[in-house]
């Protein structure tokens, strides 16, 4: 992989893995007297811009919380719109992902997704699997608690098959049974629209992640805002419990 092109920003250290709770699409639309769907549409534009910027700034992993298990509780029309936008995004962005050397991955209960979305998703994952730049991880029908429970079941299966002894279970073994087993824990978590909660996102993985909460609504969150979050991160001192 060639080193990222120089930018006009002075970053300090760049987080290897950034996770984002993309929130505030509905409020953005409401403030403009638009319907919520239009907020989601504008939000998709932010996704495009931030993904591109992440690659340019030298971030290695970007995890985007795009749809939670709890989001299935929203009105059917909104869920359908979000699934449609996701399908379009995957279809339209594929050439751009390839051009920018981005590898797409997904975490969550992917079997919950409509078949056409799943097909499109697997196509993108396949088509980008050899790319060596940014790894873009979409969290879809994701729940941190579900992920942990699934890991417990997976460990129990291995014990039953005689592949694992219960005495061997430690953090590393547990980690190996999570959706995120291939990725390091996030260094930086960004949440837009000012909400101060995790909303069931990466509960295990965020234990020592730096948190950045901005009042900016997701559709307004663009390259410049992302750069500001990285600059803020560069000024943090991470101690991991030591001095
Ligand atoms: C984030 O925006 C998008 C998803 C959760 C899918 P919201 O739709 O939650 O927007 P607000 O929070 O209602 O403003
Ligand atoms: C979190 O946003 C989920 C995603 C961004 C996909 P929500 O809008 O669903 O979270 P709550 O309901 O405000 O906690
Ligand atoms: Mg919200």
Core attributes:
Undecaprenyl pyrophosphate synthetase; six-stranded parallel beta sheet; 14% strand; 243 residues; binds magnesium ion; alpha/beta; globular; binds 3-methylbut-3-enyl trihydrogen diphosphate; 41% helix; 7 helices
What's a quick, concise take on this entry?
It contains seven helices and six strands, in the order E-H-H-E-H-E-H-E-H-H-E-E-H. It is α/β, with parallel strands linked by helices and 243 residues long.
Indicate the structural class: alpha/beta
Query: How far is the N terminus from the C terminus?
Result: 35 Å
Please count the helical segments: 7
Q: How many β-strands, per DSSP? A: 6
In which order are the strands of the major sheet placed? 3-4-2-1-5-6
Q: What percentage of residues falls in helices of 4 or more residues? A: 40-55%
- Name of the top-level CATH class: Alpha Beta
| Bound heterogens, unique | 3-methylbut-3-enyl trihydrogen diphosphate, magnesium ion
Q: How much of the polypeptide forms β-strand, as a percent range?
A: 5-15%
Specify the biggest β-sheet. 6 strands, parallel
> How would you spell out the order of helices and strands?
EHHEHEHEHHEEH
Classified in CATH, the superfamily is Decaprenyl diphosphate synthase-like
């Amino acid at each position: 992989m060639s080193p990222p092109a120089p930018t006009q920003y002075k970053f300090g250290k760049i987080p290897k893995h950034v996770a984002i709770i993309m929130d505030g699409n509905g409020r953005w639309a409401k403030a403009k007297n638009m319907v919520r769907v239009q907020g989601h549409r504008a939000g998709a534009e932010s996704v495009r811009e931030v993904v591109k910027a992440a690659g340019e700034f030298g971030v290695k992993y970007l995890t985007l919380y795009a749809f939670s298990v709890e989001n299935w509780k929203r009105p059917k029309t909104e869920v359908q719109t979000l699934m449609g936008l996701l399908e379009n995004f995957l279809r339209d962005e594929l050439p751009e992902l390839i051009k920018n050397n981005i590898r797409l991955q997904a975490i969550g209960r992917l079997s919950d997704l409509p078949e056409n979305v799943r097909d499109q998703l697997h196509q993108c994952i396949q088509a980008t699997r050899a790319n060596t730049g940014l790894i873009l991880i979409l969290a879809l029908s994701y729940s941190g608690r579900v992920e942990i429970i699934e890991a417990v079941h997976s460990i129990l299966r291995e014990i039953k098959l005689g592949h694992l002894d219960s005495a061997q279970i430690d953090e590393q073994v547990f980690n190996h049974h999570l959706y995120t087993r291939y990725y390091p824990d996030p260094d930086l978590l960004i949440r837009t629209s000012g909400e101060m909660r995790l909303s069931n996102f990466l509960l295990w993985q965020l234990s020592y992640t730096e948190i950045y909460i901005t009042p900016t609504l997701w559709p307004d969150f663009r390259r410049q805002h992302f750069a500001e979050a990285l600059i803020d991160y560069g000024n943090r001192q991470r101690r991991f419990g030591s001095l």
